[in-house]
């Protein structure tokens, strides 16, 4: 519909209709015909007020119309959304601080319990923020006991969103690699799963009243997934069994660190958000084995397993905070359980010629590489002991070997034809920095920082 335009004549018509008793009973078309005759006989001075009234009305309309951005979205609506998001963030921070401070006031910060939760999803709907879950894990954590309990389940949602098969496959293959429905594993009764999860979260919070909201923590990247998956689970039951708030775990670590340091009187160390956030980005425990579910352990996708995620978050907390409170870390609770060696030892003297040939090939391969794989063969007393590594993530290759990387064509590294500092006189101390450190005397290195004599 074209926007309504105001003109002087129509202003006159509406005023005439209002002021004349006969006009009030007329239709607009009749009034326009009648007023047309009057308008014709009016001079410019008489028409003037109506024309200026029309202009004013047009300007007023423009002012009330909201401004849009280049995507056609109302700026005022966007501003309102931003303000709401900022308020939610502030509320989340205040609630996190309240939880930590409550523990501090009880002088029981080390026994304050937190629940960490993570979801893997198959796909998410485009129109509303609902995620179709694939795997859920939650753990209860306290600084004193580490991981107190764990709830973990694969989820079979039955069906996915129609028309999003490609996106689903892409996301799944790049992350958790759980089989898609109808081959999905785990709990298929979503209502029961939701009830179980709520019950687990309630048992983790025995002090909470029945109507109190339940609080779980997740990383900022995980929060939309956790909220979206809970929304999906809720949608399957008639009424939500509980209000579940998902808060930022990185902020929790920051606040907890500050309060822990304050409670044990450590004042000479400054902590900032960037440093604590980095602990999650670096993810030191990412490649530890034995902390994810059996399925992900078997397909070597531990990084994406939710069980591994919540465990790793707990280990980050323990690693960063237990030292301040002099809590002895326990394997499996505060840090990954002891690693089992992923190899078996066999004596090649007892094996057939065929296998000893394999052993010699094996040692040749490993000798090419450097670092941790090279210790796979070693001589123990009289016999050569062979370690067969089953870890497929272990990788050994020589970048200059054409058979390993045919596309490189056996490229050789070129000698540096013009080393820096060549133009300098042989005795010039500035040459020293370019010499490999092993060929330098300590005096050379020291001299290289001095200016040459003039
Ligand atoms: Zn898993």
Write the layout of secondary structure elements.
Layout: H1 8-19, H2 21-25, H3 28-40, H4 44-64, H5 75-105, E1 114-124, E2 131-142, E3 146-154, H6 165-174, H7 190-204, E4 214-218, H8 223-236, E5 244-248, H9 249-263, H10 273-282, H11 294-298, H12 306-321, E6 343-346, H13 353-368, E7 377-380, E8 383-389, H14 442-447
Parallel strand pairs: 4-5
Antiparallel strand pairs: 1-2, 2-3, 6-8, 7-8
Helix pairs in contact: 1-3, 1-4, 5-9, 7-8, 9-10, 9-12
Q: How would you describe this structure to a colleague?
A:
It is a single chain. The chain has 454 residues and is of the alpha+beta class. 42% of the residues lie in helices and 13% in strands. It contains 14 helices and eight strands. The protein has helices spanning 8-19, 21-25, 28-40, 44-64, 75-105, 165-174, 190-204, 223-236, 249-263, 273-282, 294-298, 306-321, 353-368, 442-447, and strands spanning 114-124, 131-142, 146-154, 214-218, 244-248, 343-346, 377-380, 383-389. The chain has a three-stranded antiparallel sheet, with helices on both faces. Strand 1 (114-124) and strand 2 (131-142) form a beta hairpin. The longest helix has 31 residues, at 75-105. It starts with 7 loop residues before the first helix and ends in a 7-residue tail after the last helix. Bound molecules: zinc ion. Zinc ion binds next to helix 11 and helix 12. Zinc ion (ZN) is lined by residues 135, 292-293, 295-296, 305-307.
């Amino acid at each position: 519909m074209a926007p309504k335009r105001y003109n002087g004549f129509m202003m006159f018509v509406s005023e005439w209709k209002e002021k004349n008793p006969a006009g009030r009973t007329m239709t607009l078309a009749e009034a326009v015909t009648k007023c047309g005759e009057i308008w014709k006989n009016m001079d410019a001075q008489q028409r003037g007020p109506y024309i200026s009234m029309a202009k004013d009305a047009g300007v007023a309309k423009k002012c009330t119309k909201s401004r849009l951005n280049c995507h056609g979205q109302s700026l005022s609506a966007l501003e309102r959304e931003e303000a709401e998001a900022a308020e939610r963030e502030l509320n989340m921070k205040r609630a996190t601080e309240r939880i930590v401070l409550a523990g501090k006031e009880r002088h029981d910060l080390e026994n304050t319990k937190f629940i960490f939760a993570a979801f893997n999803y198959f796909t998410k709907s485009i129109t509303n923020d609902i995620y179709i879950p694939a795997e859920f894990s939650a753990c209860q954590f306290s600084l004193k006991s580490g991981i107190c309990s764990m709830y973990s389940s694969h989820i079979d949602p039955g069906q996915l969103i129609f028309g999003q098969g490609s996106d689903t496959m892409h996301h799944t293959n790049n992350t958790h690699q759980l089989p898609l429905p109808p081959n999905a594993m785990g709990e298929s009764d979503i209502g029961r799963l939701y009830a179980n999860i709520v019950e687990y979260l309630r048992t983790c919070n025995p002090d909470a009243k029945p109507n109190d909201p339940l609080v779980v923590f997740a990383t900022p990247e995980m929060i939309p997934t956790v909220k979206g998956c809970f929304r999906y689970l809720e949608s399957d039951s008639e009424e939500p069994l509980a209000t579940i708030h998902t808060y930022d775990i990185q902020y929790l670590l920051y606040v907890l660190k500050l309060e822990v340091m304050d409670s044990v009187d450590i004042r000479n160390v400054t902590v900032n958000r960037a440093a604590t956030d980095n602990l999650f980005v670096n993810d030191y425990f990412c490649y530890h084995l034995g902390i994810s579910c059996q399925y992900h352990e078997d397909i070597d996708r531990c990084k994406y397993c939710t069980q591994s995620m919540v465990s790793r978050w707990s280990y980050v907390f323990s690693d960063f905070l237990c030292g301040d409170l002099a809590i002895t870390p326990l394997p499996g609770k505060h840090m990954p359980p002891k690693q089992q060696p992923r190899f078996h030892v066999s004596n090649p003297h007892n094996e057939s010629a065929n296998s000893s040939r394999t052993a010699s090939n094996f040692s040749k391969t490993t000798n090419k590489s450097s670092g941790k794989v090279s210790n796979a063969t070693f001589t123990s007393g009289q016999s050569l002991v062979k370690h067969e590594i089953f870890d497929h993530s272990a990788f050994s290759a020589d970048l200059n070997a054409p058979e390993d990387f045919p596309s490189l064509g056996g490229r050789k590294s070129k000698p540096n034809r013009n080393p820096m500092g060549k133009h300098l006189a042989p005795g010039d101390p500035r040459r020293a920095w370019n010499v490999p450190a092993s060929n330098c005397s300590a005096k050379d290195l020291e001299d290289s920082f001095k200016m040459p004599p003039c």
